[in-house]
Amino acid sequence: MSITIQNLNKHFGSFQALNNINLNVPTGKLTSLLGPSGCGKTTLLRIIAGLENADNGKILFDGQDVTGKHVRERKVGFVFQHYALFRHMNVFDNVAFGLSVLPKSDRPGKAEIRARVEELLALVQLSHLAKAYPHQLSGGQRQRIALARALAVKPKLLLLDEPFGALDAKVRKELRTWLRDIHHELGITSILVTHDQEEALEVSDEIVVMNHGKIEQTGNADTLYRSPANAFVTEFLGETDAFEGRIEKGAWQYHGFRWPLEAAAWQEQTATAYVRPHEWALAENGTPMLTARIGKIHAAGALTHLTLQPEQGREIHVTFAGSEAAQRGFTVGQNIALTPKQIYVFSQNELIDYSI
Ligand code: ATP
After folding, report:
1. Are 299 and 324 spatial neighbours (Cβ–Cβ below 8 Å)?
2. Among 34, 158, 230, 313, which residue's Cβ finds the most Cβ atoms within 10 Å?
């Protein structure tokens, strides 16, 4: 099922939580709503579910207007951060719950419910825990049961609000991979709310980056990472260091270093350039952008991370392939000259240039 959102706004009193949201969620894809705390992700998810009303705008499911429809009529499945399993019911009954409360005319027979629950427990790989109660499960197991329960009624849309938010880092990582696999196996349209960029980059087909109630950019992980639309997206997706320079004479300039801009006609102004840790090279000739002292070296297998103290400005991070670092023989205290392989130049949050 595809979801279309048109010109949607939402206020809480005088506070605007969502500002003119327009979005298409394609059928069968896992789309993440990614953004900092308070940017409106949960509000948007709740409006899609029918748990909250927008001030105006439209929501279409497969082209049909569902804006005025009740949550029950929208056929969505939910998984929230805080596992909402019924404590007095065992795992089997929790998963069966949604089916057993359907109106008589839609309710499957007992044998069919049993078969469906067994199928779902096998899908989430917890068949052996059918008779256990929620307090006997780990946090990760509870979230897997919550997912099985959400899927029991065969929803056309699955909404996940920080489903792994309360779990420790290792379990989160395992469940991410697991969620992506299950999603693709089922082919269901899913929307995941997360503030964790690594999680969004790892599991999503499409990512919607939000900030202050607005959509900043929509795209797959590769597009957002390589072609960020503005400074917010650049900073939010992955580590990056910022350098305040000026645009003059068709180039971004920083302490004597010049980076020619493709659109040479830019007027003179201050502009920030962003460089990611792996986008630096040792300067072989010409004026380097930075000269910096190596403060720390952390060799992590395939990659070596350097923490550098530049002559001007704050500490920065640079990553080299482990083989190059070994060949260069970096040492703490050594001064190195660096030049970027790629930079992203923005003025007042707007993209000016990124080029290799
Ligand atoms: P988080 O990651 O912290 O959950 P979020 O991006 O999901 O954040 P929302 O929960 O959608 O953000 O909230 C967006 C803004 O709207 C916040 O400033 C929040 O305080 C406000 N807000 C949300 N629900 C209500 C409400 N029922 N009444 C008043 N303000 C609300």
Report:
1. no
2. 34
Q: How far is the CA of 51 from the centre of ligand 1 (A)?
A: 14
Find the residues whose C-beta lies inside 6 A of ligand 1.
12, 17, 35, 37-43, 195
Which residue's CA is minimally distant from atom 25 of ligand 1?
Answer: 12
Show me where the domains of the chain are located: 3-235, 240-353
CATH label, 3-235, candidates 3.40.50.300, 2.60.34.30, 1.10.10.60, 2.40.10.10: 3.40.50.300
pLDDT for residue 353: 62
**240-353 shares the fold of 3-235:** no
- CA dihedral 125→127→131→134, nearest 10 degrees, is 10
Query: Above 90 in pLDDT, residue 348?
Result: no
Residue to mutate, 11, 12, 44, ligand 1, most ligand atoms under 8 Å from C-beta: 12
Strands 157-161 and 189-194: parallel
Average pLDDT over residues 77-93: 85
pLDDT in tens, 187-233: 899 999 998 998 999 999 999 999 999 999 999 999 998 889 999 99
Q: What is the DSSP string of 17-74?
A: EEEEEEEEE-TT-EEEEE-STTSSHHHHHHHHHTSS--SEEEEEETTEE-TT--GGGG
Domain 240-353 annotated CATH 3.30.565.10? no
